[in-house]
Hints:
The chain is an all-alpha fold. The chain is built from 17 helices and no strands. The chain has helices spanning about 1-15, 20-30, 35-50, 60-85, 95-110, 120-145, 150, 155-185, 215-225, 230-260, 265-290, 295, 305-315, 315-350, 360-390, 400-425, 430-464.
Amino acid sequence: MAGAAKDTPERPEEEEEYRLSICGKLCYAIGGAPNQVAGSAAAFFLQIYLLDIAHITPFHASLVLFIGKASGAVTDPVAGFFISKSRWTKIGRLMPWMLACTPFTVVSYFFMWYLPPFVSGRVAWYLTFYCLFQALTTLFQVPYSALTMFLSTDQKERDSATAYRMTMEVLGTLIGAALQGQIVASAHVSDHCTVNPPVNTTDSWHDTPSFPDPSDPLSHQGLGLTMKHGPYVKLTTSFLLISTAVQLEQSNFVLFCTHAADLRNHFQYLVVTILVSAAVSIPFWQKFLQRFGKKCAACGISWMIPFAVMLVTIPNLILAYFVAFVSGLSIAASLLLPWSMLPDVVDNFRLQNPHGKGHETIFYSSYVFFTKMSAGIGLGISAAGLEFTGYKPGICRQSSDVILTLKILIGAVPAILILVGLFILLFYPITEESRKETKLALEVLRRSHQSTENLDDHKKDTSI
């Protein structure tokens, strides 16, 4: 009886240990907003800025976008290596890196949108500062996103923290796109362009996570194990395709509104509509996936397909705003789901590899790496497609081939990518039932490990 009475009050305390306060979730979530303010502006407006304001060719724009994304992707494992070599400080291991890279990120972002007075070196200018911006933001984003695994061992708490984070990031995206949209719109007026194309004289072509050391054979072994983990491969492949589709929509939407849908004076408001819709729908998707499951919530990503096709075939102002609203709902689902599902994958991996440690960051950094590479390839191909079909920077009316290309990039290509991605997600093996079973099994392993450690400590004390 005494033992039973003793066990009763400890159980709530043990559960309370895994709970996160609202203040803690907000503090974690706010950290992701500044990155999104800058990143959203680049995602929506950098391509049209390079083409119609900086007046560089689509081919060179594709090089800037692809190489910039690739530099950010390559920085993922490099950042993990250097952070793993750094020493602990009074403010932790990660905070010095975040504080050190922030001023340089601000400077690179400023010069990324600066129009230099010279013309011949503009491609090198934008390539340099876009690559710097992508690399520096990666130094912040990878460890920040991996912290989700260390906030709590309770999956519901991690999902809740992820929802807080996604809400703040979408709000940051909204702020960045709204402010930058007004700036770009003010510069991108009809007076800036000419009806006849200019003569082209150029070529027209929690705890802080421990990062694995890539020089360590165990690190390479861990990378191989993660790449062979079936749920991770299916999840990553699915959302690589989906995120590429969303990236194509974002980067080409303003160009489509300007040149293919006669919505030049509304694109900044349409972008704001998309982001407001995404921001307000994050809590809805969080409740939806908790009640109906994460795989079921993925169907919301497909909502943008029929409406985007309608906009391409029937360009209309009212329809455009409706499409923007529905696209925001789909984008919110595509943002929330992978970050909510990755912890489930890591837990599943932990259960299958109970003696493995330090793999959490490998999962997150690998996912970010592949996502950035696929987005860079998609952006590069889309910009190269505009070059091939004869896009002319600085003119008001593009050729019919260019308009057709923009319609394909907005309608057909994202639709195919999303459908294939969702088809792959059907084979994702982690269900709500298996997730609960994994949680219970990990609890048993955790308690067994704690008991073993306590027994070893007791033996050491006895021997002393």
